[in-house]
Amino acid sequence: MEVPQPQSTEGGSADVRSRGRLVRSPDVTDRKLLTYLGTAMIASGQPVHEVEEQLRRVSARLGHPDAQVAATPTGLTLNLGSGEPASFESINGPLRLDQSAMVSDIRLGLLTGGLDPEEALTRLSGLRSLPSRYPGWAMHLGFLAVAFGIAMILQPGWPNLLVAAAGSVVVLGMSRLAARAQLLATLLPTVAAFAVALMVFSAADAGLIEGPLRTLLPPLAVLLPGALMVTGMSELAAGAMVAGSSRLIFGVVQLLLFTLGVLAAAKVLPVEATQLGNIRVDELGWWAAPTGLVVISVGLCLLESAPFRQLPWIGVVLLLAFAAQSVGQLLGGTAVGSFLGALAASLGASLVEAVRPQLPRLVVFLPAFWLLVPGSLGLLSVTQLGINPSEAVSTVVQVVAVICAIALGLMFGSAIARSTGRLIRRFRRRRTVPH
Fold it and tell me: Looking at residue 339, what is its pLDDT?
């Protein structure tokens, strides 16, 4: 994130001059450190209520137990006590998984006293400029691998996989262009969905593939706002009304933009309504899903610059989430599967963090969002809603039920993990106390 200009201060927090040079007071340095840390945590994908809670703990550790924090998805405001000067820092885009791991390491270092605040501030200031451990072509290959792996789970047929891979190349190229052109960045959801849908529907019209609607989801899955909407729902449930509402509204608008592109492509060709059903092709057999999980894990490491030594742990959480989701779908349908999948992912990530403290829970948990694909389900349902308005009620209820189920699964998993962690720490303290 960019280094902000120094804020004007008053009272005991003011900067002072010593021999003609400006000396920054400890309070100003701590406030700057905390705002940098908080915005980095938000950019890592954490819900704002967790960011506020953890930031208050760090602030108390630094000697400011009365700090006030107000976090939103786009920025953070903080002061060290009622009536004290406040600082604001805006979010400058999301962080990669390796950067998120560094943020978690800095936070833990401040909590345990193992990291000096000045060193922590220096590391946070250079976080955005941290280069990726893999070259650009490897990150592009990771993008394609993630889309291909999701296709092996959603629509495991060889023709469908090839078409989905071609669509992911198109989306990758548009994403690269959107990074340089603001207009394309704004229209990217609609333009990407239109281009991929046109390619997929053309292949279906030529008789090359079946189930085109599920085939076009994997290339778009990385761009879909599924994680955003689930995070917003969990924030609403936790009482963070402003952050939760804004995330949900933004996610719904993004889904509508994707849907507009798909519907426009369906009108251009045109495509018959019978081809736009939720049809799943299963030509590859049982091995497609496990292979897809491995491909997704490798692709995530390349795309998010995560070290390959974390690959087994990311794969374990993905496997737990997929197994729980599959069992839940067999027992009680999509909503139950989504709840159990999110619960397993949350608990699995907490277990990994307990076994490997240097591996942050968030890093191994976030990839599970793409596996649960709530955004893909939302796009599928909203597209069917545009084609067949008579099923509006059932479609909307299904999407809302899945998003709520995932959010509840995350909340239950986090609550169970925190309670278990407190019990373990209490047990360890009792064992260390001499009789």
Answer: 87
Q: Which residues contact 178 (CB under 8 A, 6 or more apart)?
A: 184, 185, 188
Going from the C-alpha of 428 to that of each of 227, 348, 431, 433, the distances in angstroms are: 35, 22, 5, 9
Cis peptide before 270 (omega within 30 of 0): yes
- Regarding pTM above 0.90, the answer is no
pLDDT of residue 158: 93
d(CA 399, CA 17): 59
Residues 6+ apart with CB under 8 A from 135: none
The closest of 324, 387, 20 to 197, measured between CA atoms, is 387
Q: Which ranges in 155-287 belong to alpha helices (H)?
A: 158-178, 182-205, 212-215, 217-221, 226-237, 241-268
Q: Tell me the pLDDT of the chain averaged across its residues.
A: 82
b/e map 108-136, b = 16+ CB within 10 Å: bbbeeeebebeebbebbeebeeeeeebee
Dihedral sign from CA coordinates of 285, 366, 239, 61: positive
